[in-house]
Every structure is written in C-alpha cells, then in structure tokens.
Amino acid sequence: MAENPMLKFVGKEQAYPEKRGADARAEDFLEISKSFILDKAEEQASRCSQCGVPYCSTHCPLHNHIPDWLRLTAEGRLREAYELSNLTSTMPEICGRICPQDRLCEGNCVIEFSGHGSVTIGSVEKFITDTAWKEGWVEPLVPGAARGQSVGVIGAGPAGLTTAEYLRVAGYEVHVYDRHDRAGGLLTYGIPGFKLEKDVVMRRVQRLKDGGIIFHEGFEVGRDASMEQLRAKHDAILIATGVYKARDIKAPGVGAPGVVKALDYLTASNKAGFGDAVPGHEDGTLLATGKNVVVIGGGDTAMDCVRTAIRQGAKSVKCLYRRDRDNMPGSQREVANAEEEGVEFVWLTAPIAFEGTEHVTGVKVTKMRLGSPDASGRRAPEPDPGSEHTLEADLVIKALGYDPEDLPRLFGADDLSVTRWGTLRVDHKTMMTSMDGVFAAGDIVRGASLVVWAIRDGRDVTDHMHKYLKAKAVAAASERVAA
Please, what are the domains in the chain? Predict the structure, then answer.
C-alpha cells in the first residue's frame, strides 16, 4: 500500500518562506518573502490533517477547496492543484499574498488548535499560481458565444474585475470604467509593492484585456458620462467603486501642511514605483525622506504607511494607536514585520492637536487607558488626564479607515438609494440597487473590508446579473415576436 502523503504535521514543523533580512528589505519595495521551492511547498502541504470538517475552507469567504489542493500539491500534482484553486478564485496568487490568513484559513486550521502550528496555506496558494504563470498553465480568457448584450462595470478593483471576467466568459460584451490611469483599484495604488508587487496585478489585468474586456481608464462617472448615459449604453451596470473617502480627525491644527491622508501618500508611492512623475514627491509633500513621521491608526493601511516611510528613508517612524497591541485591527504579522524594520509603536496614545502654523512640527498626544467594553465588546479607550505631551513630527499620516463617497451626487443619480452609512442599498436577494438593472458589489455595499470578500461579492453578483440579463433578453425576444 502506498504511503499516505498527508498527516505529516507531527513530524514536520510549520515553516514559512524565508523572509529577507529587515535591513535589506527596507531598501526597496520588493516583496519581503521569497517563494517556496517545490520540495518545501510539498512538505508544508503534506502537514494538512485532511480533517472531516475543514474549518480553513469554512472560514475562507471564497470557500476555496483548500484541503484538496493541499493534497494535490503534496502528491506533486501541481497543475491539478492550480486548476482546483482557480475554480473558486479569480486571483489566488493575490489572495495568497495579501489575505490575513492568520484571521481566516490558517487561524482556523485544526492542527493550529492542537498546538502543531497551522498549515502555511497562503504561502502554498501563492506558490501554486506563481508556478502556473511560470509554466504557462494560466490559460487565456476565452469569451463565450456572443449574447448581443453589454455590461458596464464601474470600478476596476477586485470585485469589478472578478465580475468582468466571469461575465466575459459567459459571452457578454464588458466595459470597465475606472477613474485611475491603471486598473486594479487598491491592489494597484493602495497596497505597497513589498506586500504585492505590481506586475502580479498587471498580468491579471492584461489577461482580461487580451480576453476582449474593454477598459476605459481615467474615466469618471458624472464627469465623462452620466449614470443615465451608461444605463442607456449597457443592458446592466455594476457599481464596484470601493470606499475611498478618508475618515478624518477632529483636532486643532489638523489642516496644517504636512498632515496628509494615507491613500494620497500610498498612491504617490505606488505611482513612483511605476516610474510616473509624482508632484507630491518632487515637492516633498508626500515623501518621508529625512523626516520624523507619525502615522495615526492601527489597521492594515497604517501598517502599509509606516513600512513605506521606512523604505523612503524617514529619520524616524512612529505609529500611534489609541488601544493596545491585543486590540488593534491590523495583522499581527504586519506589526512584527514593521517592528523588525524599525517602526516604533506608541500604544494607548491618541492625538489631541497638531502643532505648527506654516508646517506641522509635532503631534500633541494624550495617553489612553481601556475602560469598559463598548457595544461591540471592545474596551473603549479613555483619556488619561495629565498625560499630555508632544511628539516631534515633520509628516503626519492619517490612516483611520475609509467611508463611502457620496455616489448619488457624484454620479448625478438621485434615485440611487444609500444606507445611513452611505453604502449603496441593495436587495440582498438580487444584489440590485434601487435602480433597475444597476447592481452593486464589494466595499461600496459592505463597507471597508477585505479583498477576498470583494472577490466573493464579484462572484455572487455575476449570477444575479446573468439571471437578469437572460430575463431581459427573453422579454426583448417576446416583444419582437409580438410586433
């Protein structure tokens, strides 16, 4: 009987791909981890316990067939592993890089609960699809038989791109509209290269372009076309714009020069990485070189900012967060990476004013203490009287999260209904907005969330749009017959 290639978690320890040294990786924007070599990927995949109820799949928003493709990897059947991985995700190599696996699949791995350390699922997922690209297994997007109907997708982020791909395969003409000069949304301009190198995103986008999806880049709905014009042009519309309005701080001096928004800062850095001319780098307003940098926030965007500032050669980088380490929303892996690279975390601290008139010179802060739990169950931070002091700062980056923009006003579409949070209101049975034939998916519906959830929403809305378009085609055919 052949030896079982799985259940090796007792004899083989958990291992991640080797990280480059902190000093070396702080010098560039390349990804910090090398990819697995084949033997190591097979070895780590073989640690999977093949449990009867795979919590890794259950806790993955895409419900990826994780134990199955781990087994195929362990057996050396890598092409089959890729094909199975590709069945449920349009971007497995991107999710493998940027998903918070410690909170999703790996954090719910059965062998993690048993004290053996989870299977390194994300690293194996990345390895599988990177190998598929290298070996030519990633097939071109082949459009289905033309249906004579077209779809407009507003927003070229993960939700929009996922829907565009699936609808193109189903035979629809697909147009994607995006305000930026490159597709990808936050994958392109929000996430730094050290987490997601940009050629990884661009090859995905190019595959869609080669498959006949028509991209309209630098296109703003409300400026270049109204919502009504797009509705007249297409048989259905998807709004997948994400949420881009930065949350602000109410404190004296917050408008001082040198106090900037996280997304402006990250977009400038990513544009510079593409070789674009970046005014904010030329005049220094969005560049950390030689400066004392203070980043305010404790989420993944804050982690992206502090680690970018290190790479730009900041004199010092501090991250202020009003709660403690155990209560921060960002990935603990990212915090560890940032600390290795020289970031100082100032826990239980909140800004109360920004000093400097011509330019910011410091952040006045107060220490915080955790009080009683709030409605969400988290202990609410309270100021600690008498603890105020000032931190020196030449550049302050606000990374407090994102809210939706006012789409009805921006799009000139007063009939577009929103919730009290500003997200688009949809019928959750159909994912259609208050406007007939206009659907919505991703963060613009659920609020700021994860890339993997955007992909899931893009996959789900595809089915609803497909049903709507088929019904519309049948109705149109019936009208022609009656005429």
Answer: 22-135 (1.10.1060.10), 150-243+404-482 (3.50.50.60), 248-402 (3.50.50.60)
